Amino acid sequence: MKKVFFFSLLLLTGIAANAQSEKYVKSMEKLIQAMDTTWNTDRLVELSNSFERIADAEKTQWLPYYYAALARVNAGYALGKNNAAEQTDPYANKAEELINKADALEANNSEIYVVKKLINTLKLIGDVMGRYMTAGAASAEALAKAKSLNPENPRVYLQEGIDKMNTPPQFGGSVEEGKKILEKSLEKFKAFKPASSIHPQWGESVAQRFLSR
Amino acid sequence: MSAKPLLLLFILMTGVYSLHAQTRISGKVTDKKGRPLYSASITLKDSYDGATSDSAGNYSFTTTETGSFVLVISASGYQQTEIPLTLDQPELKVDVQVKEQITELRAVVISAGTFEASDKGRTTVLNSIDIATTASGMGDITGALKTLPGAQQVGETEGLFVRGGTASETRTFIDGTPVNNFFYSSVPNISQRGRFSPFLFKGTVFSTGGYSALYGQALSAALILESVDIPDESEGRVNVSVIGLGAGLQHVAKNKKSSWGVNYDYTNLWPAFRVIKQKQDFYDVPVYHTADANFRIKTSATGILKYYGYFSHNKTGFRTNSIDTLGYKDAFGLKNLNTYHNLSWKEKIGRKWRLQAGTSFSVNNDDIDSHLQDGTNKDILLTGLEFKQFGLESRGRFYNLKAVLERRLRNLSMLRFGAEYNYSNERSVYTAYNGLRFDQRVEEHIKAAFAETDVYLTNELAAKIGTRFEHSSLLGKVNIAPRASLAYRLGEESQASLAYGIFYQNPERRYLPSPYDLNFSRAAHYIAQYQKVSRLTTLRLEAFYKKYHNLIKTEPFNNTTVAANNNGYGQAHGVELFWRDKKTIKNFDYWISYSYLNTKRDFLNYPGALTPNFAATHTASLVLKKFVLDWKTGFNLSYTYATPRKYYNIFDDGTGSKIIDQGETPDYHNVGFSMNYLPKLGTKKKGQFTVLVLSVNNIFGLKQIYGYNYSYNNIRRQAIIPPSRTFVFIGAFISFGVDRTDDIINNNL
Q1: Taking 60 as the threshold, does the pLDDT of residue B123 lie above it?
Q2: Residues facing residue B226 across a β-bridge
């Protein structure tokens, strides 16, 4: 009888653990899907909060923190404000806090550095003149690091291309060259295989959108 | 054990597992004032469940969890709030009030009396490039600061004359410790530059009053400079200009944990003086050799050790027509040797403590010789004018040590305390015409202790309260100087501040040694400020009242002037305005400053309370900066105006000081212009950076009279004017290995 007891207990905990990870993946998948179809600040903040909840509950997973940071920084971009640091900084700062948590769980990940790049660029556009030397440099540094960690990461070329397109010609920007880099990112996207259904895989449609401009 | 209870247990457990007792949690999140909080995150701790509040602060979500949980409410700018609850009913209503967090981003800044020039602070009015590119500043730190309110336009001597105070009442500090010879040694009627390049410093705080208890021995103002840390990249530099040559190297270790650098500059004013006629006849054209070396080491993730060493030698000699006897000339020669070493260390100790320690050592040797010469430039001794022939050797040794411990308290509140020791040993040997030598030595040990606290009561209200205690071995006296300031935020961008403080200073070295018993001079500052700062505009209004006590009175003694007593006194009050605007006109930056000053003092040989000869009632500056991207050129223009200053001929006939002549100088006008051309701007090749500079001071050659000199017998007087009306500087700065184009552009845009 004792054996039956232990067996059932084992079975039970097994089901619970399975259910837990299934719950995690399901919840993540649902939120990631929602993120792909949203470009609205309020909705992105909600999603960021949801990811953060999962992250705080799971404690050892870097992906929910990564997505929480990504959703948060995108929420800042979705405001569509340039040179309005007082409005965009809270998003950048919160996103930074979140990505640092992801970084602490998963060191030297190219994807994390892509988000760090996005955060610093958001800070930069908050006050272009005042922050070129600080946030501008940090942004470039993060992207370079992302590239060195994984030269096959298509999101690195996506960001590089967008940057090139958005920089004024006097400072070395060029729409043509930017588009060339985006083409390269599309090639990388074709070859890219995410490690799981919830690992980063966004960006291809963004590249296409910028290319069609 | 029978099977029954086990089955029961099994059913119970699976029952708990599968029974979905749903709970709906809803409520409203507000701040302490009852305003709804938007976008706050509400989380059932350790679960996936939660919600985000809407624009009315409302939230709701359902959870299948049961038992005891903690509801966590977090929103940026607010303290995280936790509420324990038990999920045992289908409907739970939880309304939450959250407290505002006191953060650097939102908190009021204690700013009365200070102008900050750095690349980070929110109250920053200028950044380091602004200092270098202010047209009338000619690349000198104090030149740029003179365009800020509070400083006088004194052109005949170096230093910052602030709010009715003399230049000696302003002290300069580098990385916490005082600098004893910040300017090149004084030359009669020619203002000298500061020794240090503005690019050595990442932060400059110019306090025109009411400054912190961490600093002492300055009655009026403090110039607080913070040196740069480890640079981003290695670089070499070369500069060529009409006044000299220079080269330098800065090497940064691969891991960016340490760096070292060396620089050498040679300045020779001969070519410039060939083109720009000087009033003085230079028999020894000014020649300067300056060399410096530095190293910076990161001692940990939070600690840095910095060393800066400076060495300079300069020489000059010139003749002017003697005012004392017609047809003869006064010859003045100066040789100066100066070294300065500063070692500082900053480190975080644990989570709450920070240590800042610094030490500096400097040597300053001046050799002055003075002669009366005839028409053929031969030395001559005339009866009654023997005093015009002398030699003066001054030897100064200075040592400073300071340590400050800082402890973080709740919120942003802070406690700082520490101690300081300043040693000076100044010897001078005066050799008279007849070979008689007068050897003097003044030695001083000042020991100080201080404590200060920053208290942030809310984001809106903050106070800084401090006290400084000093003991002077020279005076054999102690002083206790309380300081306090208060800041209150009025709105998103505006705040009001008040500051009060007592400040002490020793008698000036030049009136020492004295046979009399002396005391510290004392000043009390009262400052009220209003400030409105947005990212692109700054408005500051400040009113002050300053009361001086125990100022030094002097008297003739053995053919010199010595400090006699502390019976002097004075007061100054005024209103100042500063407005900077980068917003109204695109890519155009300007600032306006205005100072009103009403001051009188009885000090030195004044026969009573007078408006001092260095104080103008109204002073105003307009500084314009425009960068034209298509031309790759920055244009800087500045205009400074000051109302007339008083001048006096004060003469002591043996029965006491009397004014035997007085008047007012004409108005002062100065228009400065400078241009920086960056030919490499926008080119893709990084690694080389060139800037060509043209800078013209007093571009319209307006006549500037600073005051008058009187002959020893009071028969003649002579206007004190600059050596040349206009000065032109042309130079090229080339650096290799790092692209600094971006900082120049972005600070000029």
Answers
A1: no
A2: B203
Q: Are A53 and B119 a contacting pair at CB < 8 A?
A: no
Q: How far is A132 from chain B (nearest CA, A)?
A: 7
CATH architecture of the domain covering B114-748: Beta Barrel (2.40)
Judge whether A90 and A123 are in contact, CB under 8 Å.
Answer: no
A22-148 folds as 1.25.40
A136-183 pLDDT tens trace: 888 988 999 999 999 999 999 999 999 899 887 777 788 999 999 999
CA dihedral for A188, A189, A190, A193, sign (positive or negative)? positive
- Taking an 8 Å cut-off on Cβ atoms, the answer to whether B52 and A45 are in contact is yes
**Cα angle for residues B33, B36, B41 (degrees, 5° grid):** 120
> Measured between CB atoms, does A132 come within 8 Å of chain B?
yes
Is the ipTM, as predicted for this complex, more than 0.90?
no
Beta-strand pair B304-321/B521-533:
unpaired
- A102-111, B25-34, B126-135, B499-508: which range is least confident on average? B126-135
Task: Determine if residue B730 is left, alpha or beta; phi over 0 gives left, psi from -120 to 50 gives alpha, anything else beta.
Answer: beta
Segments of chain A assigned to CATH 1.25.40: 22-148
> Do B535 and A172 lie within an 8 Å CB cutoff?
no
Minimal C-alpha gap between A119 and chain B (Å): 16
Q: What is the 3-state secondary structure of B68-135?
A: EEEEEEECCCECCEEEEEEECCCEEECCEEECECCCCCCCCCCCCCEEEEECCCCCEEECHHHHHHCH
Residue B353: closest CA among B301, B416, B290? B416
Q: Do A16 and B17 touch (CB under 8 A)?
A: yes
CATH class of the region B19-98: mainly beta
Mean residue pLDDT across chain B: 89
Report residue B520 CA to chain centroid gap.
Answer: 24
Nearest CA in chain B to A90: B76
Report CA Rg, chain B: 32
Q: Is B483 helix (H, G, I), strand (E, B) or coil?
A: strand
Share of chain B above pLDDT 70, in %: 93
**Does A1 sit within 8 Å of B76, measured CB to CB?**
no
> Which pLDDT value is given to residue B117?
67
Cα(B366)–Cα(B344) distance, rounded to whole angstroms? 27
Please judge whether B48 and A16 are an interchain contact, meaning their C-beta atoms are less than 8 angstroms apart: no
- Chain A, residues 157-186, CB within 8 A of chain B, namely 170-172
What is the distance between the alpha carbons of residues B158 and B151, in angstroms, rounded to a whole number? 12
Kindly report the nearest CA distance between residue A205 and chain B, in angstroms.
28
The alpha-carbon gap from A46 to the nearest alpha carbon of chain B, in Å, equals 6
Domain extents for chain B? 19-98, 114-748
Of A11, A30, A34, which is closest to residue A22 (Cα–Cα)? A30
